[in-house]
Write a structure and sequence with these properties.
alpha+beta, 5 strands, 5-stranded antiparallel β-sheet, 4 helices, about 55% helix
């Protein structure tokens, strides 16, 4: 038989674990809610700054195309925060990828907007800092 003091200690530990578990769940829930709010605000800001054609593309396919300010080359920006920009070749084939993003822990909408602004206004500078990725391969 368990002495009464040990039973009390076991019940106290169980109660404390229950309280800590609730606090952690509340904290996680709050963090998730903040992240969802940030994602929604970022996407709204992005969509508010897309042209009508870009907005239609993004709604339909999850990407939009931009034209570089210096070379006139076309680039496709897919939903994401990195490794999400490709040069477009003839017949809308994907060319080499470009990896560049703003500093900080930003949500996808904010990153894509920064990439759009950079390519449309200072393409050369953006490409200087971008990591060039290999062209996508197509398996037949």
């Amino acid at each position: 038989m368990i002495p009464l003091t040990w039973l009390f200690v076991i019940l106290l530990v169980a109660y404390l674990l229950l309280i800590v578990g609730r606090l952690n769940l509340a904290s996680v829930s709050r963090d998730l809610r903040r992240q969802e709010e940030a994602e929604a605000k970022g996407l709204k800001l992005l969509i508010d700054n897309l042209t009508a054609v870009q907005s239609q593309q993004y709604d339909r396919f999850g990407y939009f195309d931009v034209v570089g300010s210096k070379t006139g080359k076309r680039y496709r920006i897919c939903h994401g925060t990195s490794r999400n920009v490709n040069e477009l070749l003839e017949h809308n084939r994907l060319g080499a990828g470009r990896c560049f993003m703003p500093r900080g822990n930003l949500v996808a909408g904010d990153c894509m907007l920064a990439q759009k602004i950079a390519l449309e206004n200072c393409e050369e500078e953006a490409l200087k800092v971008a990591l060039r990725l290999p062209m996508p391969t197509v398996s037949v």
